[in-house]
Write a structure and sequence with these properties.
Distance between the termini: 55 Å
Order of helices and strands: HEHEEEEEEEE
Strand order of the largest sheet: 2-3-4-5-6-7-8-9
Strand content: 35-45%
Radius of gyration: 18 Å
Number of helices: 2
Structural class: alpha+beta
Largest sheet: 8 strands, antiparallel, barrel
CATH class: Mainly Beta
Number of strands: 9
Shape: globular
CATH topology: Lipocalin
Length: about 120
């Protein structure tokens, strides 16, 4: 009986791993027009600690751990660029998507995993 449970548990773990690997392979990089269309009027979030709202007018509203900031966003050379607050520097990212899951990849920073969704009414 314990061999059967162990085998079943192993199959569940392997199935989950294969599903995760397959999902990771579905990410594809967006071009400039796709980034503009996908982010305009949407909210990027980790669904717990922070969100960035990409207004259609080029304004980005950012909230992280209760601290709210405002800046601007734009698309340049197939990358999403942001400038939030006067003391920050411009950051540009490659945008990879798989459904509503987003990865932002930039020079010198680890990939940022987030979800792109319709904004929730908390502003």
């Amino acid at each position: 009986m314990s061999k059967r449970i162990a085998t079943t548990a192993l199959l569940v773990v392997l199935s989950a791993s294969v599903g995760w690997i397959a999902a990771a392979e579905e990410f594809h990089k967006l071009k400039a027009a796709q980034i503009q269309a996908k982010f305009s009027g949407m909210e990027l979030t980790d669904q717990v600690h922070w969100y960035d709202f990409y207004d259609r007018n080029g304004t980005v509203l950012s909230s992280s751990m209760g601290r709210k900031r405002q800046g601007k966003w734009w698309v340049e050379r197939d990358q999403l660029c942001t400038d939030v607050d006067e003391d920050s520097s411009v950051r540009c990212y490659d945008v990879l998507v798989s459904g509503n899951n987003v990865q932002l990849r930039g020079d010198g920073v680890l990939p940022l995993d987030a979800v792109l969704r319709t904004p929730v009414g908390r502003r």
